[in-house]
Amino acid sequence: MESWDVSKSVNLYGISNWGEGYFDVNSDGDVIVRPNRNGQSINFKDIVRSLVQRGIQVPVLIRFDGIIRDRVNRFQQAFRSAFQENEYNGTYRAVFPVKVNQQRHVVDTIRLAGRDFGLGLEVGSKPELIAVLAMHDTPGALLLCNGYKDREYIELALVGRKFGRRSIIIIEQLSEIDQVLEIANQLGIEPELGLRMKPAAKGSGHWESSGGDKAKFGLTAPELVWAIDHLKKNGKDHWVKLLHFHVGSQITSITAIKKVLREATRMFTELWKLCPSLSIFDVGGGLAVDYDGSRTNFASSMDYTPEEYARDVVYSISQACQSAGIVQMPDIVTECGRALVAHHAVLVMQVVDVAPTVEVVTELAQPPSDNELLHEFQELHDKLSIKNCQESLHDAIGLREESMQRFINGDLSLREKAYADTSFWHIMAKVKRISTGMKYLPEDVERLGEELRDTYFCNFSVFQSLPDFWAVDQLFPIMPLQRLREEPNRRATLADMTCDSDGKIDRFIDLKDVNSFLNLHSVKSTEPYYLGCFLVGAYQEILGDLHNLFGDTNAVHVDLDDTGAVQFTHVVEGDTVREALQYVQFEQPDLVERLRISVEKALREGSLTPEEAAKIQKRYREALEGYTYLCVDP
Ligand SMILES: *Cc1c(COP(=O)(O)O)cnc(C)c1O
Questions:
Q1: pTM (2 decimals)?
Q2: Residue 42 pairs with which residues in a beta bridge?
């Protein structure tokens, strides 16, 4: 057999396709991260080892602040270049929509990374507004207010203007206009408004249906005209500063983006004629992430780059303005969320158990009885050859059904059934082995591969940490973090720690297809086997849920200091069992008291000694303060 090396692992897992220069494998076969895409690198194994030494257990979400800063700069640079190419005389203003990742330290890192060029924030609800109102002190930076709004929301947004927040209320429903008119008048505050249009053109990918005529948000052409007329009637049309649209997330195709841009830029110039105070063109979010690295318009990929996106946005608005005779080009706002934060976070989890698939054997064991059915299994196995491969497969399936029926009828004992089942899988394994030498693989034989995979049990919850995998078939790159000099010779699917049959990962990225297995190494008992789940920094944490009461994982911010040394800038401890239980109203004092009463009773009845009683109660209290995930020896 050919020898394996690191470059083969790099190819197999596609790390340079989706890694964007941030992730790589070193010559020792360990996965490393280069947060600044330069020579400085950090080894995941070292990070995890240091964390475990500090008592921070896996699963752990590792955040690289450097990656966030690099993304912010990359988009800034992309638009700067596009402006130069098009001799564009407006300004670019990046805005981060906080719903994509509201974690305090993430928002702070983004805010600070963009402070010099006035990076703004977007909120879509009252709680988000309340957080951002206090924190967002970058002078002159935008605070875009989207979503459904009540009186309190509008008041808060307006009041913010008195202490230096440049809030722009984006009108998504016509009813909001009268509310804003009334509240602004009461407070004596001059608002700035945006109008959200509802483009007829749709995005592409998973969220295609969030755009188009049926979209949940935005104003139609008649509504936009009414809005401007209504404001004019009240003498307030000069409040209108911004036109906004957003056709959904993870837009996989540049063709779809160009189409929406044609409609929206035209709308901008037409609205500008009615309302020349309009000076900001806000293209919303939707810039995709290439999760599988295939550079296609597949749902987990994208067929363009951020640079191409920037060029298309700038080109189309500049063309539209030129045709309409608009000399001062509008400022361009993007609300890219996913594309800004997806790369920065990596979930590290540990394999805690493996259920291996059956291996090929040369001979089946002797059947436990003279039952002729069992001998048929044996014969089938022994006579299996490349010529009768498919037929044997069908025969084996028939025999297995027969054995099941006989078991139910009481004609086969448990020991005999066990022999039949084991034999069946040995036959399957042998069919698969033999079929690798076949030129044309019948479909049912090919599908066998999917059945014959190991199950690797991993200490995490799909529902908490990768909800989009479960909810919308989103794929994420997953790979071992070590031993990449060795050939990963097992084919595996992953199972999580929840007792839900959906709590598994059985679809994996592939350049041309979706893979039904992940190549992994055999786990050694002497060292932990860690898997990294990459590009999970957008949406996953807040959409994650408490299925089976597995709580938030530990999260750690990792950064490089001026000397290039690794530092943990923030450690955000995951939920304790007590916190997870609190969400469902099991309060610690009550639980402890109820346990005490039962222990007291057992004491009286003599089934516990006082020492045992004390120990049990101590252990229970400790468990309440512990991590919700399995405690495994590192
Ligand atoms: C969700 C959302 C975004 C972010 O979208 P991404 O696909 O993450 O870039 C931007 N703007 C608005 C109005 C949103 O609702």
A1: 0.94
A2: 33
Residue 346 backbone phi and psi in degrees, to 5:
-130, 130
- 316 Cβ contact list (under 8 Å, min separation 6): 258, 261, 262, 265
Whole-Å CA distances, 4 to 483, 484, 508? 11, 9, 22
Distance from the Cα of residue 408 to its chain's centroid: 45
Indicate if ligand 1 lies below 6 Å from the C-beta of 337.
Answer: yes
- Length of the chain (residues): 634
The pLDDT of residue 452: 87
Q: Which domains does the chain have, with CATH numbers?
A: 1-64+343-357+453-570 (2.40.37.10), 88-335 (3.20.20.10), 372-449 (1.20.58.930), 578-624 (no CATH)
**Residue 362, Cβ neighbours under 10 Å: how many?**
7
Q: Which two tokens stand for residue 575?
A: 């939920």
Measured in degrees and rounded to the nearest 5, phi and psi for residue 188 equal: 65, 40
CA of 339 to the centre of ligand 1 (A): 10
Q: What tokens appear for 31 in the block?
A: 């996965």
Q: Given the CA of residue 100, which atom of ligand 1 is nearest to it?
A: 8
A 10 A CB-CB count for 272 gives 20
Integer Cα distance of 78 and 306 in angstroms: 7
* Strand ranges, E, within 253-355: 280-282, 331-334, 345-355
The residue-averaged pLDDT of 559-575 equals: 94
Of all protein residues, whose CA lies closest to atom 2 belonging to ligand 1? 285
Residue 246 DSSP symbol: -
Classify residue 358 by its DSSP letter: P
Q: What is the pLDDT of residues 297-309, one digit of tens each?
A: 999 999 999 999 9
Tokens of 553: 């994982």
Three-point CA angle 80, 84, 88, nearest 5°: 95
DSSP letters for 427-487 = HHHHHHHHHTT-SS--HHHHHHHHHS-EEEEESS-HHHH-HHHHHH-----EEESS-TTS-
pLDDT band for position 210 (50/70/90)?
low
Give the largest CA-CA distance in the chain: 97
Rounded distance between C-alpha atoms, residue 283 and residue 625, angstroms: 46
506 Cα–ligand 1 center, Å: 28
